[in-house]
Design goal:
Elements lengths: L1 E2 L1 H20 L4 H21 L6 E6 L4 E2 L4 E9 L6 E9 L11 E2 L6 E6 L5 E13 L5 E16 L2 H12 L19 E7 L11 H7 L3 E6 L5 E7 L7 E2 L2 E2 H18 L3 E7 L3 E8 L4 H11 L9 H11 L5 E5 L5 H15 L3 E5 L4 H8 L5 H26 L3 E3 L6 H14 L4
Length: 436
Amino acid sequence: MRPTLRAFFLILSAVLVALLLAVLSPTTSGLGLYYLFAVILLLGLDWAACLRPHNLDIKIGEPASIYIGGEEALVVEVAAADDRAVYNFEVAIESNNLIDQAAQLPVRLEEDANYLQIPLRPVARGTARIHRVWFRWTGPMGLACRQVEDETTLEIPVLPNFKKAAQEAQKAIGAASEEFGVRPDFNHGQGSEFTSLRDYAVGMDPRSIDWKRSARTRALLAKEYEAERNHHIVLAFDTGHLMMERIGGLTRLDHMVNAGLGLAYSALKGGDRVGLFSFDSQVRSLVRPLGGMTAFNHIQLHLAAIENSTDETNYTLGMTRLSESLTRRTLVVLFTDFVDTTTAELMRENLGRLAVHHFVVFVALKDPFLTDVADGEINSTKDISRSVTATELLKERKLLFSRLRRQGILCLEPDHAHLVGQVIGQYRSIINQELI
């Protein structure tokens, strides 16, 4: 039995009334005791009228998934077995840190309603887990309540926000259709895969003329080509501690995952095959290249499961294992970042070996903090020291990018707002130029 606040204040008021009457009018002090006994009697009656747990039918409906940056609801339905009214029914949950803590505040069932919704707002990707659910309801007078605790194993995947990535990519590449997806840009006259014949026109490459068919039709016909498809593309994600830094409300890794998701959709829709690889101090996941749009959900779930680690990134191990897993020339898009020169040099050496047999794209987000500090106002000696340090770090980044480019590695350093568009635009350019 649990008394409510209403019952507590009634009992407190009864005690105060009894004491006041005992002081002011000893002959009527018994009235205060009667009042106290009446409150206790009402409390017992309300407890007896309060529904037992076995008389309630409670169902919990969790969402199939939640997109990061969005919101879904945990639906709790409640009904009494004998159609009796349920008074002041409340639900509270305990979840892991992937769900905004506001979701753990109690939610009350509205009058004449048979269900309530608990809003779930994810703050990071992964698997949201609800460990416990508490149910509480009162009797008709609101003096006594029952509380039941239920341990659950509810798991809800928190997926990368593909819708947001798609909108950003549409804006960046000027997609006119509401349906997202990179359409193959055939660039007729370029590429190596034959598609069709057309009448030869002035300005076309004379080497494209098909002389045999031209002789049969007595008209000059030229061959048209398009960029070859069915390439292998691997999205490699660094999940080390540097990727935990937050930029624009999301971690570096979350920004990278959104870009990788948009690129995966584009590549699969265009006929290429996409695989995944993640690593830090050890290899965390490896998904070999898959083809067809049916593979997109599979890739999306794997991207949702990629989590940040507090470990230092081991590029030697990661790039060696990735190279061993590749069976043909592949476009490798590495999403990573660096700070110190030692890590940068190890990374450059291992990427150089990988670039000998594969086409590598190096993607690192521009650090707005370094730029702001380097270009900020100087008001003290401390500001001078910070500005010099930030400037040196920016010079080291530029030097590393220059060395990577000399090794044949394509480098991108966009800001987080243009990351998706630049990655997809660069992919289109690589495919159309047949650099793989």
